[in-house]
Write a structure and sequence with these properties.
By secondary structure, this protein is α+β, with helices and mostly antiparallel strands. The chain has helices at 4-18, 41-44, 124-127, 140-147, 154-158, 169-179, 192-211; strands at 23-28, 52-56, 59-64, 67-72, 78-83, 92-98, 102-107, 114-118, 252-256, 259-263. The strands form 3 sheets. A 4-stranded antiparallel beta sheet has the order 1-6-7-5. The chain binds a DNA duplex through residues 1-3, 6, 33-34, 58, 72-76, 91, 108-113, 125, 149-152, 156, 159, 161, 168-171, 215, 217-220, 237, 257-260.
Length: 269
DNA sequence: ATGGTCCCCTGACCGC
DNA sequence: TGCGGTCAGGGGACCA
């Protein structure tokens, strides 16, 4: 579920709710996620204060004096903060309970998410990540340079986290549509001017989604427990057969690298 | 190095 | 109401 805007929205919720709180205890209800949640967290985190909550790509980073908790929501993960003692719901696998009698719970039905820990603040999964798409350094020149000699499709290219983080399937489709670029094109065949427009499109799409609180899809729950998202208009994603808002042609769905791609065959060239 | 494929898992939905 | 098939927002591991 979560793409960058959802993770960013979660991060903002956590900043307001748990920064400064001290962990009282940790509970592990089901350790088997993508990787096992390290049981040592039960010993390490109690009495630790949450210093900061940040985001790198789609990873949430909860910083403590002793190290950082690294959380990825995978396809179906969500986090909420609620009063301690509220009945455990299905698929809630992990919780941090704080001394102010609230707790942060991770819910992840498909269990593609992960909870990791790093004592020194570094992690191999974070080391190889590309640039943040909302920073100024992410611009047309950067993307153009990275794309040279890349034969993969431009859609796979913009979704490559080693190039730029946080652009998932929905927003890759939406950004390419806004930029008028055919997702089937080879990355190396796209001109610099078009990359400049693509970068502007990516930033606009992501910022709009963050402003909207993320895109509502199935089971995302905001950190305060309310379904925090309202549906936002998607121009192409999931819109197979509907008329393109730009040119009126029918939106088409294809499969690229085992993922669905939605695009307008007429105005994306 | 690069790029494509596989797969982890559960739930929702659709057609019969 | 049940059953089987299909699909889903991620992304590391693995293979050519």
């Amino acid at each position: 579920m979560p793409e960058l805007p959802e993770v960013e929205t979660t991060k903002r919720g956590l900043v307001s709710l748990i920064v400064g709180q001290t962990v009282q205890y940790v509970r592990l209800y089901r350790a088997k996620l993508r990787w096992d949640i390290p049981p040592k967290l039960l010993d390490i985190l109690p009495n630790q204060q949450v210093l900061e909550v940040t985001r790198r790509g789609k990873y949430l980073l909860i910083e403590f004096q002793v190290g950082i908790l690294i959380i990825h929501l995978g396809m179906s993960g969500s986090i909420r903060v609620l009063d301690a003692g509220v009945n455990l719901q299905k698929h809630e696998h992990f919780e941090l309970c704080f001394s102010n009698n609230t707790c942060m719970r991770l819910n992840d039905p498909r269990r593609f998410g992960s909870v990791l820990f790093s004592a020194n603040g570094k992690h191999r999964l974070l080391d190889s990540l590309g640039i943040e798409p909302l920073l100024n350094q992410f611009d047309g020149s950067y993307l153009y340079t990275q794309s040279r000699h890349k034969k993969q499709t431009i859609k796979a290219f913009v979704m490559n986290a080693k190039v730029v983080v946080g652009i998932g399937n929905i927003y890759a489709c939406e950004s390419l549509h806004l930029a008028g670029i055919d997702p089937n094109r080879e990355a190396q065949s796209v001109a610099k001017k078009r990359y400049e427009f693509l970068v502007i499109s990516i930033k606009k799409i992501l910022n709009n989604a963050i402003k909207a609180g993320g895109t509502t899809l199935q089971n995302f729950t905001n950190t305060d427990g309310r379904p925090g998202y309202f549906s936002q208009t998607l121009a192409v994603y999931g819109q197979t057969g509907k008329p393109c808002g730009t040119c009126g042609a029918k939106i088409r769905k294809i499969i690229q690298n085992q993922r669905s791609t939605f695009y307008c065959p007429k105005c994306q060239t």
